[in-house]
């Protein structure tokens, strides 16, 4: 049989599904799922393939919701609106469509290429100690279950399914519509500064809790960081976006074109990385601008890389970074990509990496032509020692047995899965590893 080939953005996963389907309606999708289940075939929904893990891989039917996109309904609330969105909508299109209607996502990650259902499914998050990840904004979900039933779930309707499906890893059903609790549109001021790691860690509590959206990038082999402080502003604040030319230079040339060149050069000559990192940390120096919130959150990432990200208790961050620096210092491992540090509020989503605790995120990256395994393994060991939780969509080596102990509601998720998908119609290798 001729099979189609699917590959994810990072080129870490390839699948040869029996068929790639793009249903044009929920009815068509429901019939497809029921038919596949009746014939013992597996089904997997895919978004934009931006997970580094095999979360979206299948040898059965790969279902893209690219024809189920856009805003379906808007119901105003006290401080924004409940916006019902078709699951295949890309964040880029969603953000524009929300802005046109006077609304915005309460927080966002650093790219906008993902589908809304895919982003939610793996616990995609941004930064900000008072804010949660995207799944905390979900107020309701419409899903297709293995028998083809189309059901809604929310805090009041099938609440157990809702809690498990908010970050559902694609294991419980194909999400077709998402109700998002959006806020009124807002502008944002961005301040980016080159600083020392020591000064940044000294001021950490103040910045983490005092700045709306604080993050920093630490350049390994140096004690330099790039800090980003984003402050929310009223929607009618006069905008002062990055001018096109300097935006092109810093976002496109330095962050993508030159950075690709740097990575090719340092792949050939890894011993130059410490010197190169010192220069990069200073060149990506200070700038300020004000723009629509969603334009400030997202940047373009065209240098291909591998990533692992760990959610650690916020109070352990300084020790975790020191351990990572110690490991890099003790080995001859060289990495040109900065370590990204972000923050989130504690939340109550069952499989959220920030479940029940104030969280710091530590993300490590490696250029796709370099070997990342020893680095990621070392950082994983360091993060595990402080009860770190891996991002569900990024590389990690954890399994069901050792994940179970860090998520108080893990067994509840497994119970909901056993109930709605006992035949594992939505199963795949990744889910077998992490959920059993
Ligand atoms: C360059 C880059 C930058 C990133 N930045 C961030 C960031 O800032 N913050 C962060 O937290 N993460 C980030 N990520 C990770 C990314 O947000 C997640 O991996 C996200 O899940 C990708 O969304 P997607 O639409 O590509 O989903 P896919 O990778 O295609 O799928 C992810 C999972 O969602 C499931 N799924 C997709 N659609 C549906 C549906 N309709 N119903 C049920 N399940 C579904 C799939 O089966 C799979 O299990 C980044 C990744 C890349 C490559």
Automatic annotation (TrEMBL):
InterPro entries xref list: ALO_C, FAD-bd_PCMH, FAD-bd_PCMH-like_sf, FAD-bd_PCMH_sub1, FAD-bd_PCMH_sub2, FAD_lactone_oxidase-like, Oxid_FAD_bind_N, Oxy_OxRdtase_FAD_BS
FAD-binding PCMH-type domain sequence ranges: 13-185
A Gene Ontology molecular function term of the record: D-arabinono-1,4-lactone oxidase activity
Keywords carried by this UniProt record: Ascorbate biosynthesis, Oxidoreductase
Domain of life: Bacteria
GO cellular component terms, semicolon-separated: membrane
A Pfam match: ALO
Pathway: Cofactor biosynthesis; L-ascorbate biosynthesis
Record GO biological process: L-ascorbic acid biosynthetic process
Entry's family note: Belongs to the oxygen-dependent FAD-linked oxidoreductase family.
Matching NCBIfam families: bact_FAD_ox (TIGR01679)
Protein name as catalogued: L-gulonolactone oxidase
Organism encoding this protein: Rhodococcus rhodnii LMG 5362
């Amino acid at each position: 049989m001729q099979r189609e080939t699917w590959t994810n953005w990072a080129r870490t996963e390839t699948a040869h599904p029996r068929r790639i389907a793009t249903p044009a309606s929920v009815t068509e999708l429901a019939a497809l799922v029921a038919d596949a289940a009746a014939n013992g075939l597996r089904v997997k929904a895919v978004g934009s393939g931006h997970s580094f893990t095999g979360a979206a891989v299948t040898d059965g039917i790969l279902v893209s919701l690219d024809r189920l996109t856009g805003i379906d309904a808007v119901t105003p609330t006290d401080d924004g609106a409940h916006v019902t969105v078709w699951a295949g909508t890309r964040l880029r299109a969603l953000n524009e469509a929300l802005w046109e209607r006077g609304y915005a996502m309460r927080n966002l990650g650093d790219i906008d290429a993902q589908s809304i259902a895919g982003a939610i499914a793996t616990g995609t998050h941004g930064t900000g100690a008072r804010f949660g990840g995207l799944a905390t904004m979900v107020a309701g979900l419409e899903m297709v279950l293995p028998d083809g039933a189309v059901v809604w779930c929310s805090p009041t309707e099938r609440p157990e399914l809702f809690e498990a499906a908010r970050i559902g890893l694609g294991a419980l059903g194909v999400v077709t519509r998402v109700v998002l609790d959006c806020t009124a549109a807002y502008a944002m001021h961005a301040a980016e500064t080159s600083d020392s790691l020591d000064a940044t860690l000294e001021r950490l509590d103040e910045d983490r809790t005092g700045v709306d959206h604080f993050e920093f990038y630490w350049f390994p082999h140096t004690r330099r960081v790039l800090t980003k402080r984003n402050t929310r502003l009223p929607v009618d604040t006069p905008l002062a976006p990055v001018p096109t030319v300097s935006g092109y230079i810093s976002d496109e040339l330095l962050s993508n074109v030159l950075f690709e060149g740097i990575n090719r050069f340092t792949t050939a000559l890894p011993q130059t990385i410490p010197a190169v990192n010192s220069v990069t940390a200073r060149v990506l120096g200070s700038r300020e601008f004000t723009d629509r919130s969603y334009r400030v959150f997202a940047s373009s990432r065209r240098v291909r890389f591998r990533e692992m990200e760990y959610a650690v208790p916020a109070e352990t961050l300084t020790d975790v970074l020191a351990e990572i620096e110690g490991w890099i210092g003790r080995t001859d491992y060289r990495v040109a990509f900065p370590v990204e540090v972000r923050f989130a509020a504690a939340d109550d989503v069952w499989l959220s990496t920030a479940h029940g605790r104030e969280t710091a995120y530590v993300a490590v990256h490696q250029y796709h032509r370099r070997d990342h395994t020893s680095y990621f393994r070392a950082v994983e060991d360091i993060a595990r020692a402080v009860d770190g939780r891996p991002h569900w969509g990024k590389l990690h080596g954890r399994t069901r047995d050792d994940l179970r102990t860090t998520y108080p509601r893990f067994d509840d998720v497994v119970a909901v899965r056993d109930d709605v998908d006992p035949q594992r119609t939505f199963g795949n290798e990744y889910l077998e590893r992490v959920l059993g």
